[in-house]
Amino acid sequence: MRSSIRWKFLLVLIIVAALGVSSSLILRKLIVRDFGQLTEGEMEDRVYWVSAALETAFEKNQEWNREALTGDAVWALLLGIEMRVKDRRGALVMDTARALKQLSPESLQRILSSAGINVTRSHGPYASYPLFLKGEEIGRLEVRYFPHEKRALFVSRTNRFLLISALLLGGVAILSSMILARRLTRPISRLARAADSISQGNLHERIEITGSDELATLAHSFNRMTQALEKQNALRKKVSANFAHEMRTPLAIMQGQLEGMLDGLIPIERRVLESLLEEDLRLARIVGNVEELVQAEASALTLKRIRLPLKPFLESIAQRFSDAAGKKNISFSVACDDEVRVNADLERLTQIFINLVTNAVKAIDSGGTIRLSGAAEPGCCRIDVTDTGRGITEADLPLIFERFYRKESDGLGLGLPIVRELVDAHGGAIEVASQPGEGSTFTVRLPDQENLHNSP
């Protein structure tokens, strides 16, 4: 069974949460351990203080003095130590219980309150320490510790706080992981379902977009892609119809004329043969354009690049259209510095600008202007074809370079796609700017290594 990405993501988040909880528990253990070690070190120091006080008292009195021992026992009690003192023969000399019996109830209560201990809860075996005077053992000190209520309270609260924090952290982390996993994987699941729907031909599928994160950006891109696919599909259907129409018309004309000649209805004359030849040439142009486009798209074109002066080239293009421009009262102008050079295949470059200028002439009804301009830019050569014709609508601009797209009724709709592929074959770029009723400007940029080296 396919493993859901949601569960994988949730598992990762739970592992991270478990690591956080484990870190909290380890921290608790380390704090309690270090605090215990600190407490043990302090108690060892206090035992040393008591031992030193007992040895000093014995040296002063040269014997075990009960009054001095009582004071030392009370002092040890304040330090949290229950003690027993034995002489060198092992006889009990003084212990904490005897010392407390010699105190008044008020003094005892005051001492216990100050010490913060519970004398009824001492536990564990006694630890024995020898007492010396000038290198000779004079007795032994046996001690055990009273639980320090404040310290015990600190440890208890620390344990409780860290344990509760770990549990809360774990619970919140797991709950947050489930919510986050669901939130993050839901759009991915929608995207997968939409992609599956599109793969079955439903190009109307769209994803509802919420938020502004990377997943929302992905959803926007997906919707744009499906919209482009839908347009391409509609365009492909239109292309098929246009191509069939373009092929059918000359074939039908040729078929009708040939059948008429076979039936004796149409005389075999030069004008009829010329008509058949014209339709045949039309078919050849259609097939040639399609073949040329396919070659360009497949990068099968072999370019013979040369460096040629741009201004004479643009002037020759304008001269080619002098008759067509004169019929529409269109004026041509060329603007280019003499030193500008372009690195291109002359035949393909001519084909590019014949197509562009042909479209410019068609776009002008009468009395307009067409301007051909060129300039050297850093790393490239820029060539503009500007006309004052009808212009292109904003809706048509993204489609004009698509194969078989025709705004006008004439033509096959392959001119601009071929132009784009030829420009791409040169490693260049083409763009268009247009306003309906004001005209259009097609800009071609072709890379030029010499301009690149000479650029500042």
H/E topology pattern? HHEEHHEEHHHEHHEEHEEHEEH
Biggest beta sheet attributes: 5 strands, mixed
- Span from first to last CA? 62 Å
In CATH, the architecture of the largest domain is 2-Layer Sandwich
How many DSSP-defined strands? Answer: 11
Q: Reading side by side through the largest sheet, how are the strands ordered?
A: 6-8-9-11-10
What is the name of the CATH topology of the largest domain? Heat Shock Protein 90
The outline comes out as rod-shaped
Strand content: 15-25%
Which helices and strands occur, and which strands form pairs?
Layout: H1 5-61, H2 66-78, E1 81-87, E2 92-95, H3 96-101, H4 105-115, E3 127-133, E4 136-145, H5 149-199, H6 214-262, H7 270-297, E5 305-309, H8 310-320, H9 322-327, E6 331-336, E7 341-345, H10 346-363, E8 369-377, E9 380-387, H11 415-425, E10 429-435, E11 439-447, H12 449-454
Parallel strand pairs: 6-8
Antiparallel strand pairs: 1-2, 1-4, 3-4, 5-7, 8-9, 9-11, 10-11
Helix pairs in contact: 1-2, 1-5, 5-6, 6-7, 7-11, 10-11
Any overview of this molecule?
- With 456 residues, the chain is an alpha+beta fold.
- The chain folds into three domains: 5-152, Beta-Lactamase (2-Layer Sandwich), CATH 3.30.450.20; 214-297, Helix Hairpins; 305-454, 2-Layer Sandwich (Heat Shock Protein 90).
- The protein is 59% helix and 17% strand.
- The protein has helices at residues 5-61, 66-78, 96-101, 105-115, 149-199, 214-262, 270-297, 310-320, 322-327, 346-363, 415-425, 449-454; strands at 81-87, 92-95, 127-133, 136-145, 305-309, 331-336, 341-345, 369-377, 380-387, 429-435, 439-447.
- The strands form three sheets. A five-stranded mixed sheet has the order 6-8-9-11-10.
- The longest helix has 57 residues, at 5-61.
- The protein is rod-shaped, with a radius of gyration of 50 Å.
- The two termini are 62 Å apart.
- The relative contact order is 0.07.
